[in-house]
Structures are given as C-alpha cells and as structure tokens.
C-alpha cells in the first residue's frame, strides 16, 4: 500500500515538480528509500555522505517528528502521511544567491 | 501606569474584551518587544504591535528601502525608497500610534552586540532573513531567557513557532544545524509571494500579544506550517530536545559563538567567489559582445530559471536551467564553443564544471553574469 509523501517547495524540482509523491514501504526509512531510488537527485538533499538524514531536514509521520518515534525504523500504517520539512532561510535575502 | 482618555478611546475594542480588558491593555503598554528586521515579516509585526499599543517597540535593521522591497514590506512606501528602513518604519508606526515609543537599533546584530541589544526586552520577534542571524537570535534568547517568536518564509510557504520559553523548545531543537550554503537550491528557487510575510508576520504579532497578555494557548511545542498555494495550515509537534546544545539538560553552548562559521558562510562564499572570478575558463562581457557583433557563431547558454529568462536575456542565448542541465546535455552535442552565464556567475561556474566533466571542454563561464552584461553592455535591460 502506498503512502503519500509531502514534498516541500524547494525540493519539488527533484521530483518532477510534484508536491505529493506516493511511495511504498513498511517503515519511514523504506518509504524514503523507495522515493530516492526513483528520484536520485533528491537523495543528496535528504541524506549526508554517511547515509544519515541531514540535520536541517526533518521528517514527520503525520504530525510527529520521527526523531521522537523510532527514527527511520518507525513503522508506517496505511493512510499515514510522511512530510519532509527542511529549514528555510527565512525572510527574503537582500541579495539572493546569484 | 494608567491610560489617558484618548488611549481609552483608541484601545476601546480591546478594553471591552474580557480577555484583554484594562489589565491586558496596561500589560501591552508596559511591554517591551524587540523586532529583529524591518522587512517582510517585520512590517506587519511592527505595525500591528504599534496599533495594539505595545509601549516600547525596538527595531533592529541597517538596510535602506529599495524598490524591490515594496512588493511585501508594507511598512515602507514608494516615497521612502532610499531612506533607512528604521526611519521609514518609525514614521509609519508613530503615524499609526503616537502613544508608543520606538527604539531604533541601527546595526547588524552580531555575537558582540546581541546581548546588549536584546537585554531589557520582554519578547523578541524574529524577522530575520538568514541562518547566521536566526541561530544568533535563538541562542541569545535562550541564554537570556527571552521568548522568541519565530517566523520564516519561502516562496509560498511559511513557518511559525514560539521558542525559548521556560521549559519549551528552541530553534535548535527543531533544526540542530543549518544547511550548508549552496545545498539548498535557494539560488534558482528564490522569491516570495508578497502577501506571505503578511500572514506569517501577523501570526507572530498575534503570538507576541498573547504572550504579553497571558491569554490563550501560545504556539509553544507546536510548529505551524502554512501553504498559501493549497491555503492550508498544518500543525506539527515539537518538543524540547534534552540533548539540545543550547537549551538541553547539559548545554555545550553557553555563550554566543561565531555564527557565520557555524553556518559555513565564510569559507564557502569565498570559495564560490573565487570559483566565479578566478577560473581560467571564463570570458568577459566585452569579449562576448565583440563576438556576438562579429557573429562568429558563439553559443550562449543561459542556465538561470525560466522566470529569470523572462525578465531579461542576452541576445541569442539558449535557456537550459542548471537543474535540468545534466539530463539535457544531448542538446549541446556538436557545439564547439559555448559561453555559459547565469545572474552573476556562480551557477554558471557550476554549469561549466559540469560541462567540462561531461567532455565539453570549450565551455566558458561569463564573468559577472547577466548583471555585468547590464552594467557594461546594455543598461536598458532591467536588473532584478
């Protein structure tokens, strides 16, 4: 059974501009693995070189931060939604990156 | 402290609300709130707090109003272009409510001055636009014990929460580390819906007023996400991290640090500048102009985003955004020589590196990008 993953605006460019992508797996890690196996460019934005989730990218199962559940081993049930929520710079930089 | 008859009339719609009343209004009058930034988020925050009768409102900013601010920074108007934002903001706030005091701090907040600036305020409202200042404000608020009303915006989405309350989480509990510069695709993905800071800043002002009066449920241990495109608010759970380096049980950060270094700003920015300016594989706008005039068949590749291409372009340039370049290399087969450009030369330097690695050894980076082209070759084009 597929679960919905909410993709934040800055990362949509790596998933063909979709805001929601379906992926399958029994745990959060498996579902993210399925997602990044299909959208390879996304992988380096979610994981560091050691294959760990980056510290400025939070992953939520429904409204809970998976850091406070079982991290990537957190089991996912039918109908659960996964959200990727990266930190955003904030206002608008006076001088946007060129 | 009391209210004058004029103030009673001014605040009458508050005074007749049981949850605000005279007590609440006097709390507002006695309150001192510091708003960091008089930009997109700071505009609604400062105006609403002024209107609500917050007695002392501090503003931190060092910027000057320019035309590109006016699409969202509604505290400033067209006649203010060129004025310091602090002057413009203060005039507007005092026009709304001359009963308040505006304290202008004309400086860039830093580890050296943050404690001096923040001390004495009851609440800080974070309207900053960059990671180093955001972590600085967070840490200073935690260390001083001042609640920090946080807001952040990007494109069509915003975030808000309340940090650094007693026992509550802080920004580092949410995001322990900032993204390294360049990894988050902010360059090509910039921009913001002008109304978005209005929504998020108004949430921040609401939370500040609630904290002052002591009513309702503050946005603590909760993290609000707003998506303007879907017109949806979502609430995510947040909790204090016992291992947080600043507000955890055994904090390791007990004084302010070097936040540029923490955010990796200095070395990386310098490196990319170097990459953009000192690469041997580059061309100047004068060279490009001469070659276009000669019509020697030089191929101009623009790696900006389509929206930027619509604003201005170099004649005869072909657009392939940097993000799409790896999958569209085939379109470049047979091009003997190409000059690659973006807005100012950083993205195109990445593109040239990528092209060289793919075997296109004759790709050159246009130094200074289209901004240099506008400055030196065609000033009739609009800058952005």
Task: Summarize it.
By secondary structure, chain A is of the alpha+beta class. Chain A has 2 helices and 5 strands. In chain A, a hairpin with a 2-residue loop joins strand 3 and strand 4.
Description of the structure:
The complex is a heterodimer of chains A (98) and B (384). Chain A starts with a strand and ends in a 12-residue tail after the last strand. Chain A is of the alpha+beta class and 98 residues long. Chain A has a single domain, classed as Ubiquitin-like (UB roll), CATH 3.10.20.30. In chain A, α1 crosses α2. With 384 residues, chain B is of the alpha/beta class. Chain B has 2 domains: 233 residues, NAD(P)-binding Rossmann-like Domain (Rossmann fold, 3-Layer(aba) Sandwich), CATH 3.40.50; 103 residues, Oxidized Rhodanese, domain 1 (3-Layer(aba) Sandwich), CATH 3.40.250.10. Chain B contains 15 helices and 13 strands. In chain B, α4 packs parallel to α5 and α4 runs parallel beside α9. The longest helix of chain B is centred in the middle third of the chain and has 18 residues. Chain B is elongated, with a radius of gyration of 24 Å. The chains are: A alpha+beta (98), B alpha/beta (384). Chains A and B meet through β4 and β5 of A and β5 and β8 of B.
Keywords summarizing the entry:
heterodimer; A: 98 residues; alpha+beta; Ubiquitin-like (UB roll); 5-stranded mixed β-sheet; 2 helices; disordered C terminus; B: 384 residues; alpha/beta; Rossmann fold; Oxidized Rhodanese, domain 1; 2 domains; 8-stranded mixed β-sheet; 5-stranded parallel β-sheet; 15 helices; 13 strands; 16% strand; elongated
What structural category characterises the helix and strand content of chain B? alpha/beta
The ordered string of helix (H) and strand (E) elements of chain A is EEHHEEE
Radius of gyration of chain B, rounded?
24 Å
CATH topology of chain A: Ubiquitin-like (UB roll)
Please tell me the total number of domains of chain B.
Answer: 2
What is the molecular shape of chain A? globular
Provide the residue-averaged pLDDT of chain B: 92
Q: Briefly note the structural class of the backbone of chain A.
A: alpha+beta
Main sheet: strands, sense, barrel of chain B: 8 strands, mixed
CATH H-tier superfamily of the largest domain in chain B: NAD(P)-binding Rossmann-like Domain
Task: Find the count of extended strands of chain A (DSSP E, 2+ residues).
Answer: 5
The fraction of residues assigned to DSSP E strands of chain B is: 15-25%
Count of the domains of chain A? 1
Shape of chain B: elongated
Nearest-angstrom radius of gyration of chain A? 14 Å
Percent of residues in beta strands of chain A: 15-25%
Number of helices of chain B: 15
